[in-house]
């Protein structure tokens, strides 16, 4: 990721998760969820990452429509799927999911097919008008709302931009014991796959998958640890770790904004893109209102709120949203490289340097997870 492709807020979704732990989390969940047999027309229930039901994001929509957004927060895709499977059909009107999980929601029959005519795709950049991971033939299953990039994340006191221009940097002997992983197999193995020259990093035949495992295993002597969000922040801040795989500027940007010497760049082999998408839950009794909510979140006004969300701001696919953001919060647009008259994140995408994070295509998700656990325990 180039300079400024980052999150400009003080909190990420994982920090929200940390702050909502234990009894506080249970109390918050109880207060947010009025789920029961009776369904009200003056509320929408949403299953989502933390932060999306805050007044700064949904307050205007609630006032405009006389409705209350009631959120159930989850902390990972597997938990999201489990919560839906354990709930009566129609429990969740809206489901926010990472793009790769939309495929699983569709397969399990947990979401409704969307009508493309309901949404302002003419306002979207062309690359996002028919976003491949959200379509099954002519059926659209989800609506892209926000996205961001993952690349090489590092401490600029010890590593230069030139050194960070390739994933090969992580094998530098000078960094032995100073390299770490964000503990999730998809972004890490996807990045190693890019280093191996695979044009579709998650679509690997048996030979290519074997080479990814071998290349990853060769990095193990360099690795200081495997960290979640909190550990990533602390290990970088204390200089226990100088470089990390599997993350992006949504973490290093947080440290940099408070004065820390950290950044993320998209290396020459390319970077990965995470995508957050809105879906309408199967058998919702509030389909019309749910559609209006999706329409609001991808309108220019909703996109500004999505881009600048305190929990963890991100990039947005609506070009009209970029224009409005430049008017109302030029600093945020500039920091996140979303100014149309400058080199911006769309240039990076159009240069072919970004690949969508996906589920494995020729292996099972369990295959990747099994290798990751073996690698961690080596």
Characterization of this structure:
By secondary structure, the chain is an alpha/beta fold. Helix content is 38%, strand content 16%. It has helices at residues 13-19, 22-32, 55-65, 77-85, 99-108, 185-195, 206-219, 229-237, 249-257, 287-297, 300-307, 319-328, 330-335, 345-350, 365-377, and strands at 43-48, 68-73, 94-98, 135-136, 139-140, 143-150, 152-155, 179-182, 223-227, 243-245, 262-265, 271-280, 354-356. Strands 1, 2, 3, 6, 12 and 13 form a six-stranded mixed sheet that branches. Helix 3 (55-65) links the parallel strand 1 (43-48) and strand 2 (68-73). Helix 11 (300-307) crosses helix 12. The protein is globular, with a radius of gyration of 20 Å. The two termini are 30 Å apart.
Please write out the topology.
Blueprint: H1 13-19, H2 22-32, E1 43-48, H3 55-65, E2 68-73, H4 77-85, E3 94-98, H5 99-108, E4 135-136, E5 139-140, E6 143-150, E7 152-155, E8 179-182, H6 185-195, H7 206-219, E9 223-227, H8 229-237, E10 243-245, H9 249-257, E11 262-265, E12 271-280, H10 287-297, H11 300-307, H12 319-328, H13 330-335, H14 345-350, E13 354-356, H15 365-377
Parallel strand pairs: 1-2, 1-3, 8-9, 8-10, 12-13
Antiparallel strand pairs: 3-12, 4-5, 6-12, 7-10, 7-11
Q: Give Rg in angstroms.
A: 20 Å
Shape, please?
globular
Number of strands: 13
Strand content: 15-25%
- The helix/strand class is alpha/beta
Number of helical regions? 15
The overall pLDDT, averaged over residues, is 88
């Amino acid at each position: 990721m180039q300079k400024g492709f980052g999150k400009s807020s003080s909190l990420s979704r994982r920090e929200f998760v940390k702050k909502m732990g234990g009894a506080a989390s249970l109390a918050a969940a109880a207060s947010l969820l009025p789920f029961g047999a009776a369904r009200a027309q003056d509320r929408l229930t949403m299953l989502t990452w933390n932060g999306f039901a805050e007044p700064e994001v949904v307050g205007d929509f609630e006032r405009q429509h006389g409705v209350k957004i009631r959120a159930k927060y989850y902390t990972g895709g597997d938990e999201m799927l489990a919560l839906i499977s354990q709930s009566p059909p129609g429990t969740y009107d809206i489901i926010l999911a990472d793009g790769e999980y939309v495929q699983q929601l569709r397969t399990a029959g947990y979401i409704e097919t969307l009508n493309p005519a309901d949404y302002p795709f003419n306002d979207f950049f062309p690359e996002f008008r028919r976003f491949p991971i959200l379509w099954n033939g002519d059926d659209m299953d989800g609506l892209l709302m926000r996205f961001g990039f993952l690349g090489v994340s590092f401490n600029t006191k010890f590593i230069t931009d030139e050194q960070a221009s390739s994933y090969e940097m992580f094998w530098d002997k000078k960094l032995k014991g100073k390299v770490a992983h964000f503990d999730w197999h998809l972004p890490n193995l996807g990045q190693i796959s890019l280093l191996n020259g695979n044009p579709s990093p998650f679509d690997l035949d048996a030979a290519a998958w074997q080479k990814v495992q071998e290349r990853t295993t060769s990095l193990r002597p360099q690795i200081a640890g495997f960290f979640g969000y909190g550990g990533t922040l602390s290990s970088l801040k204390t200089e226990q770790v100088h470089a990390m795989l599997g993350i992006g500027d949504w973490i290093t940007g947080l440290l940099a904004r408070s004065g820390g010497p950290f950044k993320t760049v998209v290396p020459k082999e390319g970077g990965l893109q995470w995508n957050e998408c809105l879906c309408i839950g199967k058998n919702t009794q509030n389909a019309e209102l749910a559609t209006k909510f999706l329409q609001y979140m991808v309108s220019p006004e909703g996109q500004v709120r999505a881009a600048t969300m305190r929990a963890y701001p991100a990039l947005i696919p609506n070009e009209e949203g970029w224009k409005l953001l430049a008017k109302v919060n030029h600093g945020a647009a500039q920091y996140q490289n979303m100014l149309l008259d400058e080199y911006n994140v769309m240039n990076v995408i159009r240069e072919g340097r970004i690949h969508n994070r996906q589920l494995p295509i020729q292996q099972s998700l369990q295959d990747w997870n099994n290798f990751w656990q073996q690698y961690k325990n080596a």
